[in-house]
Amino acid sequence: MLNLPNCPKCNSEYTYEDRNLFVCPECSHEWTLELESENNEDENVIKDANGNILNDGDSVTVIKDLKVKGSSLVVKIGTKVKNIRLVDGDHDIDCKIDGIGAMKLKSEFVKKL
């Protein structure tokens, strides 16, 4: 017997396959596995403070004064950062800031130019 996924809507185990769709006889929900994989890809998208999608090489502006940990330096509001790199982790932007050097920023504190 095939191992079919449970219904994502009602979690019923009595699903069946109809051509390229999976169907739940209990709640009449229809879905494809491709749709589920597209949703998983969207989870890895990094967005700025305004909800714009960020990409490698974008330029951003800092929207809040940020203290640099371990020094007395501050990244001032309005500081422009060019050619960012997106990385995994808590601080998801890797960049170089003029006068400060290499830094990691959180995407929630920048907006895309």
TrEMBL record:
Domain annotation Protein YjdM N-terminal: ranges: 4-32
InterPro entries: YjdM (IPR004624), YjdM_C (IPR013988), YjdM_N (IPR013987)
Pfam family, one: Zn_Ribbon_YjdM
Protein YjdM C-terminal domain: residues covered: 46-112
Family: Belongs to the YjdM family.
Record NCBIfam families: phnA
Protein name: Alkylphosphonate utilization protein
